[in-house]
Amino acid sequence: MKKQSFILHFLLFFAVFLYCFLPPLFTNNKTAGDSFPDYSYLAFLLSLLWSAVCLSAVYNQKYGNSSFSSTGLKHFMVFASVKFQIKFRKCIKHYKSGILTLLLLFASALIINFFTKPANPIIPQKTPFQWVIFFFLTCFFASAEEVLYRYYLPRTLKFFINGFYKDSEAKSKRVLIEIGEFFAVLLFALAHRYLGITSIIHAFISGALLRWNIKKTDTLVSVCLIHSLYNCLVFGFYLL
Questions:
Q1: Cα(53)–Cα(42) distance, rounded to whole angstroms?
Q2: Residue 228 neighbours by CB distance under 10 Å
């Protein structure tokens, strides 16, 4: 592994951690039933930027382009469009694991909520168009979380571990990779701390289920669809 590439990815990881993974850990507490999320367009643009950067970074990690050049970016865009079509077909092929994951997400939520007081969120007044935008942003932010927590974070930690360990059969290397997997799920869970302890537990279970799905299907498309559909169904349930 080129030293230049390793340092570049480490600096990028530090920036992503500082601006994406760290802020949710210090979000002020509030009750889970306060209100529906109030999405910010600035947050949308930043999430779009960081998601694109993280997807490009994983591509460069895998294919060894350490420069992040414009040529590499064009190659990535072509690669991504073709890869999406392949992965989407693969996602359809593995629909059973996707349905199972979605059902387990709801099952874990029902079991956890059985022991807690039901939330009564305040339903905002919106026009039909505003509701369309709301559900679009719901899907987008769910997909952005999958890019960050289920794709970029565990793969980048594995990238760094592989850089330190040349022996692919080292037992300590495999242990560190598993710790990295656990760390990614834990960070996702702690990012929901502002919703309370039950949401942290559910987010941890959900993160583990979604990571299992992405490892089984080898596609980011499936978890983006599952997470988006789950969030939309939950919000739709409260609206009805």
A1: 17
A2: 20
